[in-house]
Design a protein that fits this description.
repeat; OGT/SEC/SPY_C; 2 domains; glycosyltransferase activity; seven-stranded parallel β-sheet; single chain; six-stranded parallel β-sheet; Rossmann fold; O-GlcNAc transferase C-terminal domain-containing protein; 388 residues; alpha/beta; globular; TPR-like_helical_dom_sf
């Protein structure tokens, strides 16, 4: 028994650390969820991220100096770390930077944490390698060891593309393996991590007058902070269905978590104001009958008959998913967490999208996208404008 107690005592710190790491993983999900329900202009959302960041940093030792060559005019070494270099929403905004990067004046190193590579992963890897970049598969490698790899590669700027979403590498970022660290694309808020210096955005997604707080310094690109590369499997744009149907169909293919009670209230107002109109909503959870029934019941309570609503589950083939946009005439964005990939897909397939401006980044991504493609007239400032 004494031997067992000695063993437990020796490993107590490791066990405690494992508990802390598990707690941090739970907190990832909590922080992400807060974006769906909180407008975020007050301090609560910022404080939650900042507090997480302070605690998370204590789990890792930080590098405080770097031996990167101090040589003028040498190529900068820029690293990109993400688990989403596969057919994932983020990948549609990563392809253009990887393809059109300046590989002459920069050395690009990709740290891929992809769990299961697909054809898109292989295409990305092939592009990077053919242009002279480096591709490192890091799935399953401890985040501290990944930080060591980054150090050995002498990365000058490390860009993480995930934030508080699945399989992120914020543990690597917490080690400060690069002298400059950046977050971009994958998360609509501050990471809360003091180890990250900058967050890339634009002046429409994050107004210079915003009250939203970040631990990172915001770098606003002169145009949009996103560059969408459509799926080559999208297929042709179809005529608006109202021509053959004789009625207007509104729709949304956004994550169900983004369709808040307030969003459903506003959508019901729209449908009730447009005679004979219909609503089509597609998302993964609609494969579950109880969720479908709850969704329809909520709309019925808001005055919208369930017979006017079509619910579609996940569509696995990308071509079929993109062609499903032909079922709608007008795409309805969500709030306070707006769509990103869905908005771009909708526009690419010829379906206009209506969005509503807000006070924080998550709310304003649609504002940025629509304005930059000349559709600023589809941006509402209030719920009443959105409905009308």
């Amino acid at each position: 028994m004494l031997e067992v107690l000695h063993y437990l005592y020796r490993h107590m710190k490791d066990a405690f650390k494992l508990i802390l790491i598990h707690e941090m993983l739970v907190r990832y999900n909590r922080l992400l969820a807060l974006n769906y329900i909180d407008e975020g202009s007050d301090d609560k959302l910022y404080d939650a991220h900042r507090e997480w960041g302070k605690r998370f940093m204590k789990l890792y030792a930080q590098y405080t100096s770097w031996d990167n060559p101090k040589v003028a005019d040498r190529p900068l070494v820029i690293g990109y770390v993400s688990p989403d270099f596969f057919t994932h929403s983020v990948s549609y905004f990563v392809e253009a930077p990887l393809t059109h990067h300046d590989y002459t004046n920069c050395k690009v190193v990709v740290y891929s944490g992809v769990v299961k590579a697909d054809a898109k992963t292989l295409r990305f890897k092939d592009k990077v390698l053919k242009k002279g970049g480096v591709w490192r598969d890091i799935y399953g490698i401890d985040e501290k060891k990944v930080a060591t790899l980054v150090r050995e590669d002498k990365v000058d700027i490390l860009v993480e593309l995930t934030g508080h979403t699945a399989n992120n590498k914020l543990g690597t970022m917490a080690c400060c393996p690069a002298p400059i660290q950046v977050t971009w694309i994958g998360y609509p808020n501050t990471t809360g991590l003091p180890a990250i210096d900058y967050r890339i955005t634009d002046s429409l997604a994050d107004s210079p007058n915003t009250n939203q707080k970040h631990v990172e310094e915001l770098v606003r690109l002169p145009e949009s902070f996103l560059c969408y590369t459509p799926s080559p499997e999208a297929g042709p744009v179809c005529p608006t269905p109202a021509i053959s149907n004789g009625f207007i169909t509104f729709g949304s293919f956004n994550n169900l978590a983004k369709i808040t009670p307030k969003v459903m209230q506003v959508w019901a107002r729209i449908l009730c104001a447009v005679p004979n109109s219909r609503l089509v909503v597609k998302c993964k959870p609609f494969c579950c009958d109880s969720i479908r029934q709850k969704f329809l019941s909520t709309l019925e309570e808001l005055g919208l008959e369930s017979l006017r609503v079509d619910l579609l589950p996940l569509i696995h083939l990308n071509h079929d998913h993109m062609q499903a946009y032909s079922l709608m005439d007008i795409s309805l964005d969500t709030f306070p967490y707006a769509g990103t990939t869905t908005t771009c897909e909708s526009l690419y397939m010829g379906v206009p999208c209506v969005t509503m401006a807000g006070s924080v980044h998550a709310h304003n991504v649609g504002v940025s996208l629509l304005t930059k493609v000349g559709l600023g007239r589809l941006v509402a400032k209030t719920e009443d404008e959105y409905v009308s």
